[in-house]
Amino acid sequence: MEGLLGGFATVFQPATLMYCFIGVFLGTIVGILPGLGPLTTIALLLPITYKMDVTSAIIMLSGIYYGVAYGGTITSVLMRIPGEASSVVTCLDGYEMARKGRAGAALGIAAIGSFVAGTIGVVAVSYLSPPLSRWVLAFGPAEYAMVMLAGLSLVTYFSSGSRLKALLMAGFGLLLGAVGSDPLAAAPRLTFGIFHLTGGIDLAPLAIGLFGISEVLSMVLRKKEKMQVLAPPSSLLGFMPNREEARRSVGPVARGTVLGFIVGLIPGGGAVLATFLSYAVEKKLSKHPEQFGKGAVEGLAGPESANNSGTAGAFVPLLCMGVPANAITALLLGAFMIHGVAPGPTIMERQPELFWGVIASMYVGNVMLLILNLPLVGLFVKILDVPRAWLAPIILTVCLIGVYSTNSAAMDVLLAVMFGVIGYILRRYGYDLGIVILAYVLGVIFERSVRQALAISDGDLGIFVSSPLTITFAVITAVLVGLAFVPRKRAPGPADAAIAVAEVSQVK
Amino acid sequence: MIRIPALKVLAAAAGACLFGALAAHAADDWPRKEITLINNYPPGSATELTARAIARSIEKTIGKPVIIKAVPGGAGQLGPAELARSAPDGYTIGLVGSSSYLTAPHMMDMPFDAWKSFDLIAQAAELRYGVGVRKDSPIKSVQDIIDQSKKKRLTYSSTSPNNVLPLFQMAKLNGANLRWVTFAGGAESVLQAVGGHVDLTLQSATEMKPQIDAGNLRLLASTSPERWPDYPDVPTLRELGFDYISFGPMGYAFPKGVDPKVRDRMEKAFEIALKDPEVLDQLKKLGVAPSYRTGAEFYDHMKKMEPLFIQILTEAGMKTR
């Protein structure tokens, strides 16, 4: 508790407060702009934060991460275009509510549900992190190796679209992570004789290329079309749900919060998976499952809460173990390392002001988002009017400057452009680029852990199933791999419908 | 026939003049921007905390920020490898420990030759090392390591080939059966022993102290020539009759070919830093021994130690290259 109070003292310094605001504000905006997601934005801002104070930098980048879930809701409800993957499910019932003239109530419920879930998620992070970081001692090389394996299997299994494509992307990410010097013996590999690559591929050119530059390319090549926006309410009162809607939201918000947080904890989980699961749960529990997809309040309230607590949950493995649960926290891990902070069990003792500052900033950020979002929805929607002809060159310039400024190396710019083209092609054919980044970051830890474990066991593979933890992770992996061979049921679930929506909006 | 080479010479001479002028100019207004210091171990490690303390003082002296960039891995050799391939423009320096000169080249394929790749600035400090076990370990003494490992192979965690020398010697000369597991960072390495994933850990005082103080780790012996000031009751290996030490001087260098004037100014900045009471106080808290040598003295020191190390490495069966 004392730590958390100290954290608030950090956040309420004017400069820190400002960075927190910039973070959530940017998060909302990129949440609204379709395509431009938190990954691109955090990748872009990463080099800019190099010279900032570490606490402010992490607070700002985290603000983007949890702010996006709010912004994404707005376009999902008003335009049936998910601004962000974690709002895809909201397109189903949120948009239908808006069409029935309940746009205000839909946005209101989503914002309040997000606020409740975000805040409860943060409270859970602050209470769970200290005991969890002691539990981390149970993780030796074998446990780390197996949790990575289970995490990668989870990501692959739950990815939208083809599992084969997801598996390919995981392999591609692992391969990229292996470029450079051997992590134990320093021997160069996969460098194609290029000197620059003996240091490996840096996070900045890879992330900015895959997400930033490929986004610019898609923008340019996308057809122009007039977007249809349903009108948001003009007064604050318009956001109030009626009594019936409020009553029906309570249960889904509570369940979504708990479910989202737990899913967020799992490597490979995170906000997107949480929304799909929450939607499925609400539909199963509902007395009127036939209303789902036609404007059911539960189908909006549950997932909208789950994506916010899922975001909070993903911070636990990041802060306590230094293990990213998804692509965004993988980037945040990169930001920590660049700033000379190693997240892990010792972070609470060594850098309490940073640890608690980030957590306190999430409380404050959630309040800011609530205040920011409801009254300003009309204004935010206007952002969509910015012509792409202006947006694309600005983003491209920021991308290239960002990449070059990291190492002042022209080779990095070349790499970024190359990854931009690769990213564009992969995106075009429906490959999930988030998996590439996650596998790239996890792969290095995975390889090191496997080799350390084998050094301990003298080459005996039995070490990977030698403790309750490793066995658990091994079973999870085996089950997921087994399930992957079972063909998917063709009864269209919520995920399929939502994916269809997402794909339609992507093609546009 | 003669005119072309003459032209070439002229051009070369003009080029050299121009380059010389530029170089002189570069040295005069150095530093124009921040300096990057490559450290070979992750954030929070003993070397990183030491570099951070010294960097604060150097910033005051040269008037530009010093940014620490962590390049961990490869048993501490990836950092110097990156330094070796950096431009010698005076804006990149890095930690070059004795392992890059004395141990690593004899144990692994190195992407650089430390003797030829650097312009040394100075030696700043020496790390203190020790060997420890988790609190409930059946290993109570150094003799226990030898006795118990004869029944069952013991594993130990450590970051650099320099640290582990004593345990290699113990294995070779006393018949102990020990296996080294490399970790990229010291804190991580120590936690593996606390968590019971390896039997022993051999790390620096900075990294072991928090866990010893918390009662999670027992220090069996100092592997430095002296006892640790914080734990004066714990003997050194040497006092226990094992004449082996971990050798941990921390040198800093530019990539080869930097302007000598720039190198001299940086050397001066290090000398000032090692007299700065604030730096000395911080190093004391970290359990790191301040120990200044000029760049030339550090190089000579390494050269002097080389035959001894080759002998030890050969005896311990570590010399494979």
Automatic annotation (TrEMBL), chain A:
Taxonomy, superkingdom:
Bacteria
Coiled-coil boundaries:
none
Question: Does Transcription regulation show up as a keyword for this record?
Answer: no
Domain DUF112 as annotated: residue spans = 17-438
Q: Does the keyword Transmembrane apply?
A: yes
What keywords are annotated for this sequence in UniProt? Membrane, Transmembrane, Transmembrane helix
> What Pfam families does the annotation carry?
TctA
* Residues passing through the membrane, by range: 16-37, 57-78, 105-129, 135-159, 166-186, 192-217, 257-281, 314-342, 354-377, 389-422, 429-446, 461-486
Q: What is this protein called?
A: Putative tricarboxylic transport membrane protein
**Organism expressing this protein natively:** Camelimonas lactis
UniProtKB/TrEMBL annotation, chain B:
Question: What keywords appear on the UniProt entry?
Answer: Receptor, Signal
- Transport as a keyword of this entry, yes or no, is no
Output the Pfam families linked to this UniProt entry: TctC
Matching entries from SUPFAM superfamilies are given as: Periplasmic binding protein-like II
InterPro entries assigned: BUG (IPR005064), Bug_dom1 (IPR042100)
Please state which protein family the record places this protein in. Belongs to the UPF0065 (bug) family.
Protein's name in the database: Tripartite-type tricarboxylate transporter receptor subunit TctC
Instruction: Please spell out the taxonomic lineage of the organism that makes this protein.
Output: Bacteria, Pseudomonadati, Pseudomonadota, Alphaproteobacteria, Hyphomicrobiales
